[in-house]
Write the C-alpha cells for this entry.
Amino acid sequence: MSQSAASSAPPAAGLIQPAIEVRRLHKSFGKLDVLKGVSLTVPEGEVVSVIGPSGSGKSTMARCICRREEINKGEIFLYGKRVDGSNHSNRDIARLVGMIFQQFNLFPHLSVMDNLTLSPINIRGLSKEEAVENAMGLLKRVGLEEKKDARPGELSGGQCQRVAIARALAMNPKIMLFDEPTSALDPELVGEVLDVIADLAGSGMTMMIITHEMVFAKEVSDRVVFMDEGNIMEQGSPAKIFSCPDAPRTRLFLQRMLAPLGKDFSGESGSEACGHES
Ligand SMILES: Nc1ncnc2c1ncn2[C@@H]1O[C@H](COP(=O)(O)OP(=O)(O)O)[C@@H](O)[C@H]1O
Ligand SMILES: [Mg+2]
C-alpha cells in the first residue's frame, strides 16, 4: 500500500475523524532531513506497528505526533483537530496521547502510587481519592497492586515499564504511543510488558507501537508500517508485510530481523508465491 494522497483541506466536519492523521510531515535537525514528507492515517481503535532500521525516523515521527518536537512542514491532526501549531498546549496533548519510552522516566523519589496520581490530580483535576482509586484499578490491570508503595528503584525493569504504562493510562488518553517499550529490558522481562501491551491492544485502544519485536508486531497489529530513511516505504496487514512485502528494503530488513530467530518472513507463502525474487 502506498502513502495516502494528502490533501491540504482540513478534515471534513461531521465525518468520523481518524485518531491520528499525519500529512506530509517534514522534520530536520540542522541539515539532517529526518522525516521527508511522511503521511499516515490511524483510525480510532487501530493498532499500528512501526518497524524499520535504526535512524529511519520512527521516534522522531512519534515525538512530533505528541508534540515533543516542533515540525518543519506538514500537518498533524488528532481526532480532526490540528495540533502541530501553537493553538494546542502540551497539556491538551498530554490528556489525549500517552507516550511510553524505552526508558521509563518514572519519578525515582516518588512511590508508585504517587507516580500514578501526580498528573491526574494536577492536570486532569481529579481529587486525591478519585486518583488513588483509578490508580489502584490500573495497577491491578498491570498486575502490580502490591507495589503501590514501592519506589521505582525497588522494581525490576519490567515492573517499572508496567508502572509507566499504568501511569500513562491514568491520564485516560485516547491514543497510546509506544517507542521501543521493551528495548531496555533483560530478555526474560520482555514478555510481561508485551502481555500488558497486547491486553491493551485487545481492549480497543488506538495504539502506535514502534518495536523491533517482529513476532509481537505480527501478532498484535492491525497494520504494519515500514519506515526507512525518513519515509514510509511500505505499509499493510501483518500477513502481507511479514509474508510477502513488496519493497526490497522491507524484505532485506525483515530477513535481518527474523534470521536470528530462525524464522523466514517468506516461510508461509514463500517468496516465489508472492511473485518476488528472493
Ligand atoms: N534531537 C535530535 N537532534 C539531532 N539529531 C537527531 C535528534 N533526534 C534524532 N536525531 C537524528 O534523526 C535521525 C532519526 O532518529 P530517530 O527518529 O531516533 O530514528 P529511529 O527511532 O528510527 O531510530 C537519526 O539520524 C538521529 O541521529
Ligand atoms: Mg527510535
About this structure: Confidence is low (pLDDT under 50) at residues 1-7, 267-272.
